[in-house]
Amino acid sequence: MMGERLSLLRIAEDTETTAQDLINNGIPTGIVDDVVLLTKRREATYDAYIDAQKHSAVASMVKKADIVSNLTDNPGNRQTIEMARALIRLCQES
Questions:
Q1: Please, are residues 39 and 12 in contact by the beta-carbon 8 Å criterion?
Q2: Percent helix / strand / coil, the chain, rounded to 5
Q3: Tens of pLDDT along 44-88?
Q4: What is d(CA 92, CA 94) in angstroms, rounded to the nearest whole number?
Q5: Residues 67/88, Cβ–Cβ less than 8 Å
Q6: What are the tens digits of pLDDT across the range 17-47?
Q7: The whole model's pTM is what?
Q8: Dihedral angle, C-alpha 83, 16, 62, 43, nearest 10 °
């Protein structure tokens, strides 16, 4: 199930596919909702994007795993600080 969500996220980020397209193709609404939360929109600030994920246990878990994975890629200091801040935000109560 988690792999399905992540593959849908890649589709949503890398194509013109919309949430409605996913629903029309039989993807359950709950999965689509998580994909939408995990897809950063250009107009959203990074903090707002991270805070939105706190509304879904699955989206929050996926984003935490994504951040930890990205930390293993030897990011620069600025990126490391941004990712650390994001992890803290995700772990804080709303």
A1: yes
A2: 70, 0, 30
A3: 999 999 999 998 888 898 899 889 999 999 999 999 999 999 999
A4: 6
A5: no
A6: 888 998 998 888 988 888 888 888 889 999 9
A7: 0.80
A8: 40
